[in-house]
Amino acid sequence: MTKLTHLTATGDAHMVDVSAKADTKRIARARGRVVMAPETLALAVAGQAKKGDVFGVARIAAIMAAKKTSDLIPLCHPLPLSSVSVDIVADESLPGLRVAVEAGVTGKTGVEMEALTAVSVACLTIYDMLKAVDRAMRIEGVELVEKQGGKSGDWRRD
């Protein structure tokens, strides 16, 4: 069984010491979706939500969330992110919006939590922007898709 790195031998939570690790290029990709009524999706796509540009606000929220991940997740290291890209697309087959984030850093630890936090906050922002017309929306499928770099190597969801 793999040892949990955020626990000491006695089971206490602690922040992992990464000072001896080499700086390497690391990338993480995550995704999620907000399922909504077709009429709600049409409203978002048309840019007619009362709170404003759903896509633009959610994109900025995702970037801000990635930058603040260590403030939200107790044992995360603050990272000097080199990039965060956010893609939000309408999918009439859901119906809803699909969110994908890629985060990058050259550092001692990975950016999986930053990518996942960015997707989560983008989805929450979409919900907030549209909740006045559709409280039944669902946030689904928030997951890590891929990570590159670091001691453990690359990983990709099948």
From TrEMBL:
Its EC number is 4.6.1.17. It is an enzyme of class 4 (lyase). CDD domains: MoaC_PE (cd01420). Keywords: Lyase, Molybdenum cofactor biosynthesis. The active site is at D128. Belongs to the MoaC family. This is Cyclic pyranopterin monophosphate synthase. It comes from Methylocystis echinoides.
